[in-house]
Amino acid sequence: MPQMNMVQAINLALREEMARDDRVVVLGEDVGRDGGVFRVTEGLFDQFGPERVIDTPLAESAIVGAAVGMAAYGLRPVAEIQFMGFIYPAFDQLFAHAARIRTRSRGRFTAPLVVRTPYGAGIKAPELHEESTEAFFCHMPGVKVVVPSGPYSAKGLLTAAIRDPDPVLFLEPTRLYRMVKEEVPESEYTLPLGKARIARPGNAVTVVAWGSMLQRVMKSIEGYDAEVIDPMTLSPFDWETLLASVRKTGRLVVVHEAPLTCGLGAEIAATVAQEAILHLRGPVIRVTGPNVPVPLAKLIDHYLPSPERIQAALDEVLQY
Q1: What is the average pLDDT across 180-186?
Q2: Which of 130, 168, 126, 165 has its CA nearest to residue 146?
Q3: Please, which residues bridge with residue 63 across strands?
Q4: If we measure between CA atoms, which residue out of 98, 93, 172 comes closest to residue 132?
């Protein structure tokens, strides 16, 4: 199998699905002739033409709103928002329309659309280019939230997301676009939405992380008997896999780059306390970004969870 980075794997998934299903269309700012801000859609315009690879105005609510209409009437749109920090003008389209159309219409309509957006910090970009606000969307029943942690999972998850009958927010860790290469099959495959994977088995402590933080965790746990869980889908969350791991290890550390307060780590800690408190040997510890706006380039390394902070959390919980 060829080695691919995440940009190549996502591009291949889009190319395969567009060739397989002529209902699949791509739309967004600069996705056509320019191939997207990160060149993820490069070459699709030449292969499939302007009717299926659509350059849009700079208007996120219009991009997602158009995608909702396309999806409701039979297409399979994949809308790109250039950065997660730009998605907020489309919040109403996702929350009030895409997420509710199935229940509002009593099943007459659904919205099988994918909204792709780069997210997360670490590339030292300008303000609003490094947001990690996935918890907003996990609090939105009716929308699935998916985060790959590498090229292999990116291709399989995106293929499954495009085929899913309901709206999917597909968050692509910007920092990983070209950082990691993995073997990726050139033939089509899917990874199930809503199912986590055990990235590394262990017995002493469970660590859960997603996106680029999973890569950071994997580099921080040398010498620790840690079991690492990669959720892959944040909503719906695979509680069965996580709780089975916590019941085995008795300890849990959650790592995410979003701010601490009301981040997804809080929901994970609350659910583990409710469902597995008698198995815990120590408190659930969260290693997160601070409760401040994402800083500019000079401070970003102080903002993100560091290997030292992750190891300190492991040491603390292992003392119990």
Answers
A1: 96
A2: 168
A3: none
A4: 172
CA angle 258, 262, 264 (to 5 degrees): 60
| pTM beyond cutoff 0.90 | yes
- pLDDT, one tens digit per residue, over 192-218 is 999 999 999 999 999 999 999 999 999
Please report, as a single letter, which amino acid is at residue 126. Answer: P
The DSSP 8-state label assigned to residue 237 in this structure reads T
Which residues are annotated as catalytic?
129
Query: 30 — phi, psi (to 5°)?
Result: 65, 20
Local structure of 169: helix, strand or coil: strand
Q: Which two tokens stand for residue 288?
A: 């997160």
Distance CA 118, CA 120 (A): 7
Token pair for 263: 């981040």
* Cα gap 12→185, rounded to integer Å: 10
CA pair distance 48, 54, nearest whole angstrom: 10
Residue 303 CA to residue 299 CA, distance in Å, equals: 6
